[in-house]
């Protein structure tokens, strides 16, 4: 009976295939639960159908479950920052990812609040609701609710025929939620949004240091399993 011995070349070929495969399996099956935030960009409120000159900022955010996902995130966003998550935090964020309807509710509410604080009492409720629906229909690619402040400022420009940019001589950007009483909520991912503003040549960036009325702030919102534009 003859024994077939593997040649040296065959052994090397098998090793060259097996080692990368082992590494990939290791990357997939070794768990790592982290949130990431990466620099995004700025978007003019005019893209939401508002006749204003200001911009809101967004970041790319999500959560990862293994090192392979982390590797790909780093390839796509070389400036991504990762934050470790405890098991309960990861479960909470994963549940939030599934609750898209709730996300849409938060977004709509901040738009309602922004329209409310900038609208005079003589405007009919039907007209207010139509304005909210028109703005909301332009926000499908964004998650979160931290563009409320800049929507409110843009609406102030629109309704009072103002131009805070002085005919585009300066770029004004910012971020922050808007409450029904006109206050701005607390936010996160400030570093990534400031970097996005700096890269875009922003002259004035509005953000909140402490709770106050109609100032600014920055918010990353809750992370999601896949990368999204988080305002």
Give the N-to-C terminal Cα separation.
71 Å
Taken as a percent bin, the fraction of beta residues is 15-25%
* Integer-rounded radius of gyration: 23 Å
- SSE order, one letter for each helix or strand: HEEHEHHHEHEHEE
Give a verbal description of the structure.
Residues 209-226 have low confidence and may be disordered. Strands 1, 2, 3, 4, 5, 6 and 7 form a 7-stranded mixed sheet that branches. 36% of the residues are buried. Helix 4 (100-117) crosses helix 5 (125-136) and helix 4 runs parallel beside helix 6. The chain has helices spanning 8-29, 67-76, 87-98, 100-117, 125-136, 148-160, 190-199, and strands spanning 31-44, 55-66, 81-84, 142-143, 172-174, 204-206, 228-230. The N and C termini lie far apart (71 Å). It has 231 residues and is of the alpha/beta class.
Key phrases:
single chain, 231 residues, alpha/beta
Write the layout of secondary structure elements.
Elements: H1 8-29, E1 31-44, E2 55-66, H2 67-76, E3 81-84, H3 87-98, H4 100-117, H5 125-136, E4 142-143, H6 148-160, E5 172-174, H7 190-199, E6 204-206, E7 228-230
Parallel strand pairs: 2-5, 4-7, 5-6
Antiparallel strand pairs: 1-2, 1-3, 2-7
Helix pairs in contact: 4-5, 4-6
What does this entry show, briefly?
With 231 residues, this protein is an alpha/beta fold. It is 42% helix and 18% strand. The protein is elongated.
């Amino acid at each position: 009976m003859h024994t077939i011995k593997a040649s040296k070349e065959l052994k090397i070929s098998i090793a060259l295939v097996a080692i990368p495969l082992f590494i990939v399996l290791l990357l997939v099956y070794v768990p790592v639960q982290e949130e990431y935030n990466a620099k995004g960009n700025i978007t003019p409120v005019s893209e939401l159908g508002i006749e204003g000159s200001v911009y809101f900022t967004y970041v790319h955010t999500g959560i990862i479950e293994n090192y392979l996902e982390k590797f790909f995130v780093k390839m796509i966003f070389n400036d991504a920052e990762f934050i470790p998550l405890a098991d309960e935090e990861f479960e909470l964020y994963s549940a939030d990812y599934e609750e898209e309807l709730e996300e849409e509710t938060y977004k709509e509410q901040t738009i309602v609040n922004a329209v409310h604080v900038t609208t005079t009492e003589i405007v009919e409720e039907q007209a207010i609701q139509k304005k909210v629906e028109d703005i909301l229909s332009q926000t499908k690619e964004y998650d979160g609710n931290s563009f409320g402040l800049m929507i409110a400022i843009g609406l102030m420009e629109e309704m009072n025929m103002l131009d805070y940019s002085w005919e585009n001589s300066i770029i004004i950007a910012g971020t922050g939620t808007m409450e029904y009483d006109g206050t701005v909520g607390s936010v996160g991912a400030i570093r990534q949004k400031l970097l996005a503003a700096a890269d875009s040549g922003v002259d004035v960036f509005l953000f909140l240091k402490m709770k106050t009325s109609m100032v600014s702030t920055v918010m990353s919102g809750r992370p999601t399993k896949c990368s999204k534009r988080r305002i």
